[in-house]
Design a protein that fits this description.
Function: Involved in the maturation of [NiFe] hydrogenases. Required for nickel insertion into the metal center of the hydrogenase.
Strand order of the largest sheet: 2-1-6
Number of domains: 2
Bound molecules: zinc ion
Family: Belongs to the HypA/HybF family.
InterPro entries: HypA/HybF
Order of helices and strands: HEHEEEEE
Number of strands: 6
Binding site for Zn(2+): 73, 76, 90, 93
Largest sheet: 3 strands, mixed
Radius of gyration: 18 Å
Shape: elongated
CATH architecture of the largest domain: 2-Layer Sandwich
Protein name: Hydrogenase maturation factor HypA
Length: 126
């Protein structure tokens, strides 16, 4: 499953970061997910819970922040929302050449909130 490998990668990164920071646990992980990343948020939630079992990330909340897909036609200078399924033809000249994707493929960790030893959220570090 696509989401499982993503969740595993996120958990691994956060777990490694938590060890480097000496954080005992993780309270919250914020993830930026582009519309075209092909991720189902519910599936990602489920896989995240599975993937973090036995790591420092276990019990952390996962916040996904959706990013709308937008494209731009270089010759026309027009920008539009690509939508789903993606429409990558310029609404002006109806051509696909010179079209660049501005956003929508994001799949990155925005920030992580470490949990204090008592389980209370500790000071946040970017
Ligand atoms: Zn165009």
């Amino acid at each position: 499953m696509h989401e499982m490998s993503i969740a595993a990668a996120v958990v691994e990164q956060v777990d490694t970061a938590a060890r480097e920071h000496g954080a005992p646990a993780v309270a919250r992980v914020r993830l930026r997910v582009g519309e075209l990343a092909g991720v189902v948020p519910e599936a990602l939630d489920f896989c995240f819970e599975l993937a973090c079992t036995g790591t420092l990330v276990e019990g952390a909340a996962l916040d996904t922040e959706p990013v709308a897909a937008r494209a731009r036609c270089a010759p026309c200078g027009v920008e539009w929302a690509v939508g789903m399924p993606p429409d990558l033809a310029c609404p002006d000249c109806r051509r696909g050449s010179g079209v660049e994707l501005l956003s929508g493929r994001e799949l990155q960790i925005l920030d992580v909130q470490w949990a204090g030893p008592s389980g209370a959220p500790a000071e946040q570090k970017g």
